[in-house]
């Protein structure tokens, strides 16, 4: 593997995430305390927590956790699941296992940086950009045209980070069909599934649609529990799952035992947690609507269709990079400028920023933001 570039978003977070007064670009939902999570536990899981021995766990993941995860899918069994230390490990190891020199991958943009840079470190990659002019629509013909005889992976992310867009379920099914027909692995980042503004627009999960597809998910985003560091890949190809387990021997080996029990509790109670988090977003969106309505000359705003992040356009003459820098330095309000989502594969917007809408009580952050704008 060639040397990976700096992870721009994480480097930016290293500088500002825990020093800025107002974290207004959070990509996760409102989190929970240990007491709140444990209050959701049934008797069996509570006993498992109270009597937990802090030894090694199974590389594939705790059997009870994998059983709970399998319950999120229609076609997936516990033995089709392998757990990782967050989604990032899953992305990294899946690409290492699926791609090698001489292969080709297709990645949709904009996206989380590692979805692009890790494949690029391994083989040739083609990007297909979501159409900003059409509310981030996906051109299926452009995806099909990008596929080659040596294409091994098509990587997608819906609800999308950073745009919050969704595609029609029929289009997603067509992507899965295209991949199956051509022997391509559909790698589907589904970490925001469950936070759709219209729940009936939730896409099918790739692992349910195709026996060769991979569904990536995590406790961090929709469930708002990033501190657990528990992610997973569901795939009905058991041989591939075994290869992923062998790759994991060189990284985390196994997950944290306490995190696995807490994740099992949260996933078992996921409908209650997701309902709470959708409620927070629904309560927040009118507040964000009102904020952006006050400054129409500076922003073009559209609420996300799914997930808890949005990608507004900044219209000011100073440009979004200088704007975001001045905002965090002078007002302590952290946003994520467009350069953090720049692609080396396709042209990407340079005038947008990511803002988070999933945390409780955004009022103080938006007040500080508005006060700073009024004084400029």
Automatic annotation (TrEMBL):
Any one GO MF annotation of this record: transaminase activity
The Aminotransferase class I/classII large domain, residue ranges: 51-357
Organism the protein comes from: Kitasatospora aureofaciens (Streptomyces aureofaciens)
Entry keywords, A to Z: Aminotransferase, Transferase
InterPro entries in the cross-refs: Aminotransferase_I/II_large (IPR004839), PyrdxlP-dep_Trfase (IPR015424), PyrdxlP-dep_Trfase_major (IPR015421), PyrdxlP-dep_Trfase_small (IPR015422)
Coiled-coil ranges per UniProt: none
Source organism superkingdom: Bacteria
Protein name: Aminotransferase
């Amino acid at each position: 593997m060639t040397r990976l570039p700096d992870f721009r978003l994480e480097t930016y977070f290293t500088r500002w995430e825990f020093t800025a007064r107002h974290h207004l670009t959070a990509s996760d939902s409102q989190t929970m305390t240990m007491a709140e999570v444990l209050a959701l536990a049934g008797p069996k899981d509570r006993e498992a927590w109270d009597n937990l021995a802090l030894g090694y766990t199974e590389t594939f993941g705790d059997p009870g956790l994998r059983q709970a995860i399998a319950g999120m899918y229609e076609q997936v069994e516990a033995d089709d699941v392998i757990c990782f230390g967050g989604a990032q490990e899953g992305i990294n190891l899946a690409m290492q296992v699926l791609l090698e020199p001489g292969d080709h991958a297709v990645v949709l943009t904009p996206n989380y940086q590692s979805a692009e840079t890790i494949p690029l470190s391994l083989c040739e990659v083609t990007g297909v950009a979501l159409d900003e002019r059409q509310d981030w629509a996906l051109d299926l013909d452009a995806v099909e045209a990008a596929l080659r005889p040596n294409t091994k992976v098509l990587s997608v992310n819906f609800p999308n980070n950073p745009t919050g867009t969704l595609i029609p379920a029929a289009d997603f099914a067509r992507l899965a069909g295209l991949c199956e027909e051509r022997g391509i692995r559909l790698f589907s980042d589904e970490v925001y599934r469950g936070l759709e503004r219209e729940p009936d627009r939730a896409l099918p999960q790739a692992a349910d649609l195709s026996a060769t597809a991979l569904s990536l998910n995590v406790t961090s985003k929709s469930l708002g529990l990033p501190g657990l560091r528990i992610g997973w890949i569901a795939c009905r190809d058991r041989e591939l799952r075994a290869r992923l387990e062998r790759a994991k021997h060189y990284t985390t080996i196994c997950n944290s035992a306490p995190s696995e029990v807490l994740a099992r509790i949260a996933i078992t109670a996921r409908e209650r947690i997701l309902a709470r988090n959708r409620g927070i977003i629904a309560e927040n969106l009118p507040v964000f609507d009102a904020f952006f309505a006050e400054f129409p000359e500076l922003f073009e705003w559209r609420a996300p269709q799914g997930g808890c992040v949005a990608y507004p356009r900044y219209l000011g003459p100073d440009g979004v990079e200088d704007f975001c820098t001045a905002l965090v330095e002078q007002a302590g309000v952290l946003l994520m400028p467009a350069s953090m989502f720049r692609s080396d594969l396709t042209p990407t917007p340079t005038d947008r920023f990511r803002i988070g809408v999933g945390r409780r009580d955004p009022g103080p952050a938006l007040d500080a933001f508005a006060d700073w704008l009024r004084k400029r």
